[in-house]
Amino acid sequence: MKLPPEGARWLVWLRWLACGSVFAVIWLTSSLLGIVANPVPLYVVAAGMVLYNLLFRASQADWTAGEGNAERNILFQVACDLVALTLLLYFSDLPRNPFLVYFVFHMIISGMYLRGSAPAVLAALVTLLVGAVMLLEYLGQWAWFPLHLPRFPLHFPSEPAEPPRLDGVALLGEFAAFASALWITVYFTTSIRRYVDRAHAEIRQKEKMLGIGQLVAGIAHQIANPLDGVQNCLRRVGERVKDDPHLTDYIRMMAEALERIERTATRVQAFARPRGITLQSTDANAAVEATLEVLGTTHVGNVRIMKDLADIPSVQGDPYTLQEVLFNLCTNALAAMPQGGTLTLRTYPLGRRDEDQMGSVAIAVSDTGVGIPRVDLEKIFEPFYTTRGDSGGTGLGLGLCRMLISEMGGRIEVRSVLGQGSTFTVVLNPAGKPPRAAS
User: Fold this and answer.
1) H or E, element range at 55
2) Exposed site from 37, 43, 400, 413, fewest CB < 10 Å?
3) How many CB atoms are located within 10 Å of the residue 348 CB?
């Protein structure tokens, strides 16, 4: 999912609030509470924040020129904020300043809006800046260290006038906790962002599939209407030639072919109708038998078809949809065996072997074809990805199959060896749950 370029403007408005809060906190802690002894450097940094925020505000007109341009502006803004926050904390006793946790907010923003390695680069920048300040302040309190970084300690009411020395062990523990929290925030934020991106891409592909389904339904409707007229004409021709047995056989074969076309068009219309999938108790073996009736029970060309149906319980699914998925898998398997081979449909209970759902049932479609390269296994379920584009493949079949099986609460697994064949396994949950409509 692409976040809008207006995020850069949102950061500018958020920074105005931050600038006002910084001035208010400096005044409160220095003038009223006396915690900050020297507020001048803090006011200078806060003024610098106002200045570069004005520059960001003035250049907003060009920020929507493209997503990449918006991301670069956000990266530059976050980097400036991190440097400003580091200076503010340095001038107010960074090792003991409770506002050190505010770096986490910038990591969340960078993880939300920036892609690639940018969030990790910003996290590394913060880790180096804070670590360097802590180290130099610790070493600077010893006379033997040549570089003495000035300290700006906080003076709390319960503490003595002389600021306490920094303890190395405590400082190391504080830095370890800070750095680990920073990187954990980056990791989880970017992980959630990638998950949202994948979910958004799948939603878009499902919308695309729905549009294709509606298009196919319209085409099927246009086919079905002329078929009625052709069948009526064919019946009348059959009445005229019923005395000729040869012509009668031809008419009968033509009528049967037209009926098959009409049934296919009707099934496509029923499938594409936006009524959802009705989950019910389904006989997986019956779905396999129905698929074999369409393919031919023993041979398709030079491919031998075999079945191995076990005694399995009913599954939760939609009978018609399951047949469509099995037919699609069988069609792909036949295409993978141009020189012939064996297509095997097998059902078997998984029992306790399935960690996701005890008692689930597997339907395996195996071929002895050319196999699928390992580099393609991750992509075969992506819509419009096909290795058979020259022979008319659209790349929609497997993506649609996975979507339909997922809506039935199941999953599809694949195993393949080059030159030996492939096995697609549909795993469905056992029946017994109340039927529901899957959107």
Assistant:
1) helix 40-58
2) 413
3) 17
| Domain limit, last residue, from 275, 292, 309 | 275
Q: What is the pLDDT of residue 383?
A: 62
The phi, psi pair for 260, rounded to 5°, reads -65, -40
Total number of domains constituting the chain: 3
Identify the pLDDT of residue 437: 40
| pLDDT value for 65 | 47
User: Cα dist. 175→126, 247, 354 in Å?
Assistant: 11, 93, 45
Q: Does some domain include residue 236?
A: yes
173 burial (CB, 10 Å; 0-12 / 13-18 / 19+) is exposed
The total of other beta-carbon atoms located within 10 Å of residue 371's CB is 17
Give dist(CA 306, CA 343) in Å, integer. Answer: 6
Cα separation of 11 and 17, whole Å? 10
For residue 71, give its domain range: 7-166
- Say if strands 421-428 and 411-417 run parallel, antiparallel, or are unpaired: antiparallel
Poorest-confidence range of 216-220, 223-227, 228-232, 234-238?
Answer: 216-220
Q: How do residues 241-269 score in pLDDT, each as one tens digit?
A: 877 888 888 888 888 777 777 766 666 56
Q: Of 350, 361, 358, 439, which is closest to residue 403 (Cα–Cα)?
A: 439
Q: Which of 41, 123, 130, 31 is CA-nearest to residue 79?
A: 123
Q: How far is CA 254 from CA 161, 301, 333, in A?
A: 105, 22, 29
Token look-up 């300043």 returns 97
Q: 2 in a domain, yes or no? A: no
| Strands 421-428 and 360-367, bridge-based pairing | antiparallel
Predicted confidence (pLDDT) at residue 327 exceeds the cutoff of 90: no
Residues forming beta bridges with residue 427, ordered by sequence position: 362, 411
Strands 437-438 and 421-428: unpaired
- Which residues, listed in sequence order, are joined to residue 342 by a DSSP beta bridge? 304
Residue that terminates a domain, selected from 215, 244, 275: 275
Q: Do 113 and 229 share a domain, yes or no?
A: no
In the chain, % of residues over pLDDT 90: 27
Q: Name residues whose C-beta falls within 8 Å of residue 301's C-beta, 6 or more positions apart in sequence.
A: 334, 340
CA count, 13 A, side-chain hemisphere, 143: 0
Q: What is the CATH number of the domain that holds 333?
A: 3.30.565.10
Q: Which residue has the higher pLDDT, 113 or 298?
A: 113
Q: What is the DSSP letter of 62?
A: G
